[in-house]
């Protein structure tokens, strides 16, 4: 008979949430751990891609800046070619290479300016020669 009373008391205690009534925070940490999302793990799409044309694009831009300081046509042609190569390499992996694009524009504009200056000087020399 005593065993039956002990079993009933154990069942009553297990059915009753007396533990949670006394200290409801005991079960809370375990519940929080269960409901937490998994830790962040970056996937392949969130990782930054390696830009294969970045270095060549930067070199083309630097050569273009050198071409502004020393306006010689071959310097700007080399800078234009390097910038185009860098831009194409970046475009192949779907990355926008702004530095290479700036290098393309800078070198192209400098080539036009140098070409226009050379033609102007030739015309001025011919006019001065036949005067």
Summarize the SSE layout with pairings:
Layout: H1 2-15, H2 18-22, H3 28-35, H4 54-69, H5 73-92, H6 98-129
Helix pairs in contact: 4-5, 4-6, 5-6
Beta-strand percent range: under 5%
Overall 3D shape: rod-shaped
Largest sheet: none
Structural class: mainly alpha
Helix tally equals 6
SSE ordering: HHHHHH
Q: What do the pLDDT scores average to? A: 78
Tell me the helix content.
Answer: over 70%
The whole-angstrom Rg is 38 Å
Name the poorly predicted regions: none
Q: Give the CA-CA distance, first to last residue.
A: 136 Å
The beta-strand count equals 0
Task: Compute the number of structural domains.
Answer: 2
Characterize this entry briefly.
The protein has 131 residues and is mostly helical.
Question: How would you explain this protein's 3D organization?
Answer:
It is rod-shaped, with a radius of gyration of 38 Å. The termini are far apart. Helix 4 packs antiparallel against helix 5. The protein is an all-alpha fold and 131 residues long. The chain folds into two domains: 34 residues, no CATH class; 76 residues.
């Amino acid at each position: 008979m005593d065993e039956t009373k002990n079993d009933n008391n154990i069942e009553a205690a297990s059915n009753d949430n007396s533990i949670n009534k006394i200290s409801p925070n005991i079960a809370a940490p375990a519940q929080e751990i269960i409901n937490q999302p998994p830790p962040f793990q970056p996937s392949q799409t969130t990782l930054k891609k390696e830009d294969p044309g970045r270095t060549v694009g930067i070199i083309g831009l630097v050569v273009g800046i050198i071409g502004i300081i020393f306006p010689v046509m071959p310097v700007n042609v080399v800078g234009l070619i390097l910038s185009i190569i860098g831009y194409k390499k970046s475009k192949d992996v779907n990355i926008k290479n702004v530095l290479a694009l700036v290098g393309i524009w800078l070198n192209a504009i400098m080539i036009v300016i140098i070409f226009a200056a050379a033609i102007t000087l030739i015309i001025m020399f011919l006019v001065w020669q036949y005067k």
